[in-house]
Specification:
Elements: H1 8-31, H2 49-63, H3 84-95, H4 101-121, H5 124-128, E1 130-131, E2 138-139, H6 140-162, H7 171-191, E3 199-205, E4 210-216, E5 220-223, E6 232-237, H8 238-245, E7 259-262, H9 264-272
Parallel strand pairs: 3-6
Antiparallel strand pairs: 1-2, 3-4, 4-5, 6-7
């Protein structure tokens, strides 16, 4: 059942526990970072482990009503800042840059506790209310599902940077994966420009394997099954798929890990345009 088919009560019972678990995992992970490890570069341009942590603190602080700290740096001039959301994130990164790692852990722990208390107190009506989100106006609970995805992706960023792998399945990964599924129609139809009448199957291997079909009619969308074999089939590890979708890696650098059958040209277009995050 997709998130759009669930009522708000059922959806909150899935999304909020996943978000709380994600915060707990991140808190424990960050508590194990020390010394120069805080300044380890990550897959995100211009950002270290410390910077990702500042971004996580900043977003939850904004949702808790806390203003970004002042910085004299023109964040729009930074090469990796491409839009206003990026500029907002960078104000927190710059504003917290001088804070020691132990203080960053405390800041994160404190703000997510505040957020958990606030979310637990919200009614279903409040969670259903439309608010501004990174994908446009949407119910507040949808925003929290996006928060699960963002926090989960950044957990992977931190683990990859520091060489501390963890499990990549489970409830919070399942909620995060729904955000990726919601973008696949756009990726295949708009970004990869798959022609009408074509279809793409993703065979994802590894932990929590999954087969996903995208059919292109007037618009591209994820479907339960295809009436005929897919125009192109991509077989790759679920972890690699997630990192491609998040723009963390490039398909050209992992071509030996991606098996393409059927229309190879279309398959390459999809792989090269799989990133959808802003």
């Amino acid at each position: 059942m997709s998130p759009n088919d669930r009522g708000v009560t059922a959806e909150r019972e899935i999304v909020l526990p996943a978000l709380y678990e994600q915060w707990s995992v991140l808190t424990e992970f960050l508590a194990g970072v020390s010394g120069d490890a805080w300044f380890t570069p990550t897959a995100l341009p211009g950002w270290t482990v410390h910077d990702i942590t500042a971004h996580l603190i900043g977003t939850e602080s904004m949702l808790a009503g806390v203003a970004a700290p002042h910085t004299d740096i023109d964040v729009h001039a930074l090469p990796h800042v491409r839009n206003e959301i990026g500029a907002f994130n960078e104000r927190w990164v710059e504003g917290l840059r001088g804070r020691p790692g132990t203080e960053m852990v405390d800041l994160f722990r404190d703000v997510v506790e505040r957020r958990r208390t606030a979310l637990d107190a919200m009614s279903d009506e409040e969670l259903s209310a439309t608010t501004a989100t990174p994908v446009g106006p949407a119910p507040y609970l949808r925003f929290m599902r996006i928060r699960v995805f963002d926090c989960w992706m950044h957990e992977l960023d931190l683990r990859d940077a520091l060489g501390r792998p963890g499990t990549e399945d489970g409830p919070r990964a399942a909620v995060a994966f729904e955000e990726v599924l919601g973008a696949l129609g756009f990726v295949v139809g708009k970004r990869a420009k798959a022609p009408a009448g074509s279809s793409v199957t993703f065979e994802l291997t590894g932990p929590a394997p999954r087969t996903v079909h995208v059919a292109v009619d007037e618009r591209a969308s994820v479907v339960e099954e295809l009436p005929a074999p897919a125009t192109t089939t991509l077989r790759l590890g679920r972890g690699l798929f997630i990192r491609l979708a998040g723009g963390r890696v490039r398909g050209v650098d992992h071509s030996d890990e991606i098996e393409v059958t059927g229309d190879v040209r279309l398959g390459k277009q999809v792989v090269d345009n799989l990133a959808f995050t802003i």
